[in-house]
Task: inverse folding
């Protein structure tokens, strides 16, 4: 976590790469880097949210590269892998029936919608995630794009709040 003051003083590439693990949409991080200096953390967060309003299916597809499947806690050392492991902390990896149900649910979701199931995992148990997955399998294509984008915005905001402090 770095202070806003410090963030405001970084070089453009440094500032953008600091934000990059929040979401794999390069234009989002570079716009927030270019908008510096931000006068407050609230102003930065508000701008970050406004940029998310324009996201659609293309951005969703792009962003999924930094969001491993639920139940597959990534072993990598990249910043987004570490974030994903933390976010999935409520999924009990030792619960074999749950792990199996998530694996089957993910496979059904991918066969139905053609991309990885995305949900804000932080604060959710594995059972709650499984219930949401089952519910979202009944969505239409367009409903599901909206649901997944809403989750992507939540994850991105939580990550941003974890990167930039007061
Ligand atoms: C994730 C992830 O990496 N973090 C999170 O909240 N959700 N992945 C996913 N497929 O939903």
Result:
């Amino acid at each position: 976590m770095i202070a806003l003051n410090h963030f405001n003083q970084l070089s453009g590439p440094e500032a953008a790469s600091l934000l990059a693990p929040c979401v794999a949409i390069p234009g989002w991080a570079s716009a927030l880097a270019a908008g510096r200096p931000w006068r407050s953390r609230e102003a930065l967060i508000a701008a970050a949210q406004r940029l998310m309003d324009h996201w659609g299916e293309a951005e969703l597809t792009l962003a999924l590269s930094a969001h491993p499947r639920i139940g597959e806690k990534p072993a990598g050392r990249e910043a987004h892998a570490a974030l994903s492991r933390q976010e999935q902390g409520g999924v009990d990896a030792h619960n074999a029936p749950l792990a199996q149900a998530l694996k089957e649910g993910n496979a059904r979701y991918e066969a139905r919608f053609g991309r990885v199931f995305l949900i804000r995992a932080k604060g959710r148990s594995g059972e709650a995630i499984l219930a949401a997955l089952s519910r979202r399998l009944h969505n239409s294509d367009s409903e599901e794009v909206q649901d997944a984008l809403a989750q992507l915005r939540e994850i991105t905001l939580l990550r941003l709040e974890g990167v930039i402090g007061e």
Observations:
- The beta strands are 2-3, 164-165.
